[in-house]
Amino acid sequence: MDVFNAIVQTLDSTIRLSVPLLLACLAGLYSERAGIFDIGLEGKMLVGAFAGAAAASVFHSAFLGLGMAILISVAFAMIHGFASITHRGNQIVSGVAINFIAAGSTIILGQAWFQQGGRTPALQPGERFEAITLPGADAVRDVPIVGPIYAELLSGHSILVYLAFAMVPFTWWVLFRTRFGLRLRAVGENPAAVDTAGISVAWLRYRALICTGILTGIAGAYLSMVQNGGFVKDMTAGKGYIALAALIFAKWKPVNAMFACLLFGFLDALSIRLQGSPLPIIGKVPVQFMQALPYILTVILLAGFIGKAIPPRAGGVPYVKER
Amino acid sequence: MSTPYAKLPAWADYGLIPLINLFVAFVVAGFVVLLVGENPLRAAVILVEGAFGKGTGIAFTLFYATTFIFTGLSVAVAAHCGLFNIGTEGQAYIAGLGIAIVCLSFDSTLPWWLTFPLAIVAAAVVGALWALIPAYLQAKRGSHIVITTIMFNFIAASIMVYLLVGPLKPAASQAPQTRNFLAGAELPKLNWIIELFGAKIRSAPLNISFLLALAMAFLVWLLIWRTKLGYEMRTYGHSPKAARYAGISETRIIITAMMISGALAGMMALNPVMGDQHNVAIDFVSGAGFVGIAVALMGRLHPVGIVLAAILFGMLYQGGAELAFEMPAISRDMIVIIQGLVILFAGALEHMFRPYIQALFASFSPRSVGMEAVKGKGV
């Protein structure tokens, strides 16, 4: 029973840890499917986290915080769009720039506005997203096996967790069952064809980036308003890059993205749980190895040893109209 | 497809446009200073005075610049070959391992002028090898080098943390770093050069690796513009198709360019490790690899430009420290914003002002933008 409880707890923290990855990964899915590489997921999450926590603590409202997180994150996505769509700049360079601006400005503004060493004030109960207890969770808690799974694993998360997982089928539906999705994918594969059909490549790509901004904003809000009760500097700590890795691992498909993020979240949860205690058969595994594992796996995947990851064909190439 | 932009005179292309972009980046940074509630002009004065006002300031500025020359050159060499090496950070970090091995083995037996060349080789080799794997994967398997080098940054960080809290740490110590090197692995200071001009220097870490950085800048210029290999790299960077048609081996050119880039990145570690800290500590690179991206873009991938841009960023780092002291609201993270803005305006938005400048040039002197022929026909 102890083993079972340990497994349920590990899976529970897997879910919690994979939510920001999942949201950022789906965010990247929209932009990369539209042919815009986005290294700046990390930075957009960070500004989202900061804006969310700052607005929530100033206005005493979790939803205003979430709204502000989305707004600022979308604004940063638009900077990326302005540079890489309108001015046909290098998308990687633009993404790197956004990450730096985000990292610096969140600390500077946080310190100037709240004077707590770059933190935002600790969020009070009404200013965070609280855990939701699903109906009947307390009643079935004592039922063996099913009880803990329902009460611990499925119930007791914040609304953003359920939203993140709901985004998976929704994103699939948008991309593969709507006209917008078809065009979005087309613009990532062959923008000239989309242009010939009389559809604006730039406007379509901008809309894809708006979707990206919304999702990274929610991801940031999750970090600062659910996982942590406030903003801490550099709190994304490379999650944007792991999400990027997960996106490649998922071969740019929404459902795969969920599994990739759950896998990376599980590795994270496992390394926290084990904390250097020995594993059966393998022996003691250094924490650093577990932390590096998502990156190592992605490199192996990219090397083509686990299937082949083929990015959208027009990814990273600015579209120039013939003239 | 037509080229989107017409020609400008060289001085406008390499001088005016970067300066305008830089100016805009600083204006936006000034707005951030305003937002924080300080006076941007006063901040700028403190910054420049802190960097160049005293001999110590100049020495520190050049010390930081040394680091950025290496990383800027590293990014530029790869960029000439059309490769975006975002892994300079990781290559420099892991090169610390090579330096640690050399210094810890020889610092008690050899003098610095023997340890230094050995450490240069070790740093360059380790950095180059760390770049080799992403390069090989790009050349042979088509894995995107940006993604693989990002992944390798994180892998390098994990390895170094593992080594510095474990095997490389002296048993008696708590701090995650190697033991301090002895005199045999300490590089001589160059502060006397500045003192020649009459300035007084209390203690500054400017050291002989500054000269190595300048030598490397010259060698990179020689490589890119005066050798066959450099020509092939530029060809491949301009048009991989043309390079393939000319019989240039794609695999060879990608791997060579990336290994040179990695070696330059690795040498960056010499400056802080042997010149200043005298040990290898966790996170000793602290973002210098990413500054290299900004420096390379600012310097328009030319060694002379890179040295100037590196000094500019050295000034920002040194002046920024003074600024944080004078205006507590503006911590050193302000530099991170400026760095981001420079990358944005000098890199991603480098063409934003070009159409306007072209129009301006065309109105004064049509010949300078190659419009003479068009006018001639009308007569």
From TrEMBL, chain A:
Record InterPro entries: ABC_transp_permease
Membrane topology: Multi-pass membrane protein
Compartment annotation: Cell membrane
Transmembrane segments: 14-31, 43-60, 92-114, 159-176, 206-225, 288-306
Gene Ontology MF term list: transmembrane transporter activity
GO CC, any one term: plasma membrane
Main location: membrane
Protein name, entry field: Nucleoside ABC transporter membrane protein
Keywords: Cell membrane, Membrane, Transmembrane, Transmembrane helix
Automatic annotation (TrEMBL), chain B:
Originating species: Rhizobium loti (Mesorhizobium loti)
GO cellular component terms given for this protein: plasma membrane
Keywords, in A-Z order: Cell membrane, Membrane, Transmembrane, Transmembrane helix
Membrane topology designation: Multi-pass membrane protein
Name of the molecule in the record: Nucleoside ABC transporter membrane protein
InterPro entries linked: ABC_transp_permease
Gene Ontology MF terms in the entry: transmembrane transporter activity
Residue ranges crossing the lipid bilayer per the database entry: 12-37, 57-78, 113-133, 145-165, 206-225, 253-274, 280-297, 304-324, 330-349
Pfam families: BPD_transp_2 (PF02653)
Protein localization: Cell membrane
Listed CDD domains: TM_PBP1_transp_TpRbsC_like
